[in-house]
From TrEMBL:
It is found in: Golgi apparatus membrane. Its main location: Golgi. It is a peripheral membrane protein. GO terms for biological process: Golgi organization; intracellular protein transport; retrograde vesicle-mediated transport, Golgi to endoplasmic reticulum. InterPro entries: COG7 (IPR019335). This is Conserved oligomeric Golgi complex subunit 7. Belongs to the COG7 family.
């Protein structure tokens, strides 16, 4: 008989009885089997009762002993608690004593530091006195390195003696000594510049001296002044050497000189002034040179244009020479480090390079108009209607060829930024050209008067058809130009970053043609036209 089912939590008496009575013995005689099962269960119950009695008796016997053990454990716990409290007090006392000791140690360390600083100050004060005492003898020796070492020592001493009462007087004395050393070095420095030995060990020695006495900016000024004088002198020689040369020859030669100087002095600046970017140093130099040329580029360009029969073409050719200079500088800077394209000194240099052209680009519409109108003078109508119609028909291809040439000049001179001026000139040119059609219309009317028998009606009708065809073709080509120019202006706006502030800020200064070529008002007009076309595209 399986009794394990009685210990289960989900014990079901009915299920157990049914399962038990499924055995073969139960099927033979259920009553006898039931009597046997009951007897066995009673026997098991009796055994369980006996076991419970024994267990209860053992528990009763063990309770006093367990109670005594619990009492002992309680006493031990109270003793442990007392000991823990005592240990905690000891730890707190140790922490307090340690804190007091650390405070004392910190105070001692502070006193030690103060004493060391005082000792150092006293030594430096004594060192200043010692150095000051024989500084005149050192200057009389003329040994630049020894003088520099002496001044560096005085400089280091003075940094420690910032709180002495006569600190400012000592600073003034040290600066005057540095001035004397600088005066002594200047002739040798200029000689090194002249012999191009500034990048040799001698030049590096001067750089170290100026850096040690904290006057590296003064060295830059000496370098800047020398190079500026050399470039200005060479410009004067270029202008005065050959009287037969033109402004284009001068500009070509001077730009070659600037490029040569840029490449040769780049290495020099990197070694002589390592703490200052060479691009910045040379940009400042070129800006100063270009703004102080004698005669100025503006004067030379004005004079050259006046002597030229085609002023606009002369201006374009001069600017193309300058474009080559700018492109060479751009390539050089990109090879060094593209991040310099955002340097304000370089941006100023680019604007200075193109500054002489701004005032001429402001009147580009007038120059272009004169160029176009001069080409139109050859177009003259005759008194004969048939000849006039033929002349206008033949002129159409030439007129639009002139317009294409004008747009090409606009790109050459302004890289497309002068579209507003170009369109103004084109409008006046087309108005003048349209005047020939008005003259032809008057000629038609004149020939159709009753008292005129110069042509018959059929011939007049044929000429009118031919004229209408010419006008239609002209209108179609104008519509094509309109679509083309709108696309060109939008593309210019995209390149200049007008459609995105992020792009506008990242435009290469050599390509920011609106900034370097246009006046503020002209730039505003260009921006308004680009915005108008962009809004029209959205609609």
């Amino acid at each position: 008989m399986d009794l394990s089912a009685f210990s289960k939590d989900d014990f079901d008496p009915k299920e157990w009885i049914n399962k038990t009575f499924q055995c073969p013995e139960a099927k033979e005689n259920k009553e006898e089997f039931a009597t046997t099962i009951v007897a066995k269960l009673q026997s098991f119950i009796q055994e369980v009762n006996i076991s419970l009695e024994k267990t209860a008796e053992q528990v009763n016997q063990n309770i006093p002993r367990i109670a005594r053990e619990i009492e002992v454990m309680q006493n031990e716990a109270r003793l442990l608690q007392q000991q823990m409290g005592s240990v905690k007090g000891d730890v707190m006392k140790v922490e307090y004593d340690s804190s007091q000791s650390m405070q004392v140690l910190l105070q001692i360390d502070h006193v030690k530091s103060c004493m060391q600083e005082a000792s150092k100050a006293l030594r430096e004060a004594d060192n200043w006195t010692t150095l000051s005492a024989d500084v005149e003898e050192v200057f009389e020796s003329g040994d630049i390195n020894t003088i520099a070492t002496k001044l560096v020592g005085m400089q280091n001493s003075l940094e420690i003696l910032a709180d002495v009462p006569d600190y400012h007087e000592r600073c003034m004395r040290l600066e005057s000594l540095k001035d004397r050393l600088e005066v002594m070095i200047s002739p040798q420095l200029i000689s090194a510049f002249n012999t191009q030995s500034i990048v040799s060990d001698v030049g590096l020695m001067y750089m170290k001296i100026f850096k040690d006495i904290k006057r590296l900016n003064t060295l830059q000024k000496h370098y800047h002044t020398f190079q500026k004088e050399q470039l200005l002198k060479q410009w004067k020689q270029i202008v005065e050497t050959d009287p037969d040369e033109t402004i284009m020859d001068w500009l070509n030669n001077f730009n070659d000189l600037l490029l040569s100087t840029w490449h040769t002095q780049m290495t020099c600046c990197q070694q002589l002034l390592p703490d200052i970017p060479a691009v910045q140093v040379l940009s400042e130099l070129f800006v100063d040179v270009l703004t102080n040329l004698d005669p100025s580029l503006t004067f030379c360009i004005d004079a050259g244009m006046k002597l030229h029969s085609n002023q606009l073409q002369c201006l374009i050719e001069l600017k193309q020479i300058t474009d080559r200079l700018a492109k060479s500088l751009e390539i050089s800077i990109h090879a060094i480090e593209p991040k310099f394209f955002s340097d304000p000194h370089l941006i100023l240099l680019v604007k200075t390079i193109y500054a002489p052209y701004r005032r001429h680009i402001e009147k580009y519409d007038y120059l272009e108009e004169q160029q176009l109108l001069s080409s139109l003078k050859a177009l003259a109508l005759s008194e004969d209607l048939e000849d006039s119609v033929r002349i206008l028909g033949d002129s159409l291809s030439k007129i639009f060829c002139l317009i294409q040439e004008a747009e090409s000049r606009c790109h050459q001179l302004t890289q497309g930024c002068g579209y507003v001026s170009f369109l103004r000139a084109l409008e006046r040119f087309m108005s003048e050209y349209a005047g020939h059609f008005r003259c032809l219309l008057r000629l038609f009317r004149s020939n159709m008067l009753p008292d005129k028998n110069s042509i018959d009606s059929w011939a007049a009708f044929q000429q009118s058809l031919h004229t209408t065809q010419v006008i239609g073709e002209a209108l179609m080509q104008l519509e094509g130009l309109q679509v083309l120019y709108i696309g060109n202006v939008r593309e210019i706006g995209r390149k200049l970053g007008y459609y995105s502030p992020t792009e506008e800020n990242s435009v290469n200064p050599f390509h920011a043609y609106d900034d370097i070529l246009l006046s503020i008002s002209a730039k505003r007009e260009l921006q308004q036209m680009i915005n108008m076309l962009q809004e029209g595209k959205k609609r």
